[in-house]
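Take the subject:
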Amino acid sequence: MTGEPTGRGAGSRLRALAREWRPSAVTMGAPTFPLLVLFGLNAVDELDRTAFAVLLPDIRDHFGLSDSRALLLVAVSTIAVIFIEVPLSFYCDRRNRVRIATTGAGLWALFSVGTGLAVSVGMLLAMRIGAGGGRAVVNPTHSSLLSDYYEPAARVKVFAAHRLGNSVGQVLGPLLGGGLAYAFGWRTPFVLFAVPTAIFVLLSLRMREPVRGHHERRAAGADEEAIATEDDHETVWSTMQTLARVRTVRRIWTAVPFLGIALFGIPNLLSLIYEDVFDLNAAQRGLITAGVEPLQIAGVLLGMPLVARISAARPDFLLRFVGMVGVFDGVLLVALAYSPELWVAVGVHAVLATSIGTLAPAFFALVSLVAPPRVRSASFSTMAVFAVPGIAVFLPLIGYVSDHLGIQASMVVMVPVSLAAGLLLASAARFVKPDIEAAHAESLARVGG
């Protein structure tokens, strides 16, 4: 008799969860087509990126690289992408973001094919920079478009749904990439992954450009004429001055050098751990990663509705949440590297995947709320510039420690790095609500509302 109520209770919770994630509930009644297309483009972008991370040991061995040189390749290509993305973000604040997103998706498909055809380290680096340059449109265009397609109250779940595309790509990328590489060689996945990208590029041609900042002006009480009036564009210098006046943004800039390692480096580090510590081949690494990554989806589906409800009343919670998860994930990496058995490592990886999937949607939703709409594309991308010192210093440092003391010892470096990021982010929480109110008021004032 006790099992029946329990079964009904579980069914009720599943139905409630399904209602939470109905497309119309996520977008709060706004059209879902833009979110679905941007979700798809985000997912296919991950195929190339995660396949490269899983196949890094094979690529390293093919070109005769050490761990430090392989990670230096990742660091150099990542930093180069940042320097492409940042000037592009200023352009996105002035031009049609839908067309830029579509063009970038086509470019990363072409350079993904080029990665599979690379015959030297120099050509490989050029193709990775090119593929990354195409992907560089994602943050400034997708994040800004989502902020203008959907109202502030919907953004936590909208960004969570969009970032589920990353999780889908992170499941399929390792699974398909590892399997195809095992059967046909590491080059094959990069050539074939261009096909699904082309499909979503064609779908994106139906999207229309929204008016920048209209939701913020409506929240500030503007009339319909003011809501439909787009704010004037800023110069590059005035854009940076505008962002620097936002106290939350300034504090995030100081945390990003430490947070960047978690956002950019973890997939590559996991592959090296699985090969060097547990002696797994490309197919085995891909199978484990693909099996674990669905837990990112579970983490988002189960956790983000609660984050959305709490942050609706306390938006500063988003920043505290990102900081706590970042510290937790740094500790988990060390535990994974020192796991005595493979099954223990996979279990720790499962917990890591469940938590890390919630980082990006909370972070991007927070930035969309505090950044002035006219410089929102730049707000998402210029933060990446501040990740450069962290990537340039910590990834090669981790590689150096790995070469001399082993990959396990190198993971210990992650603990103080993630702790610094968490403390800096938590210290900015008190600025969040005033910065949101200022963004609304300024957007209205600039159109004469």
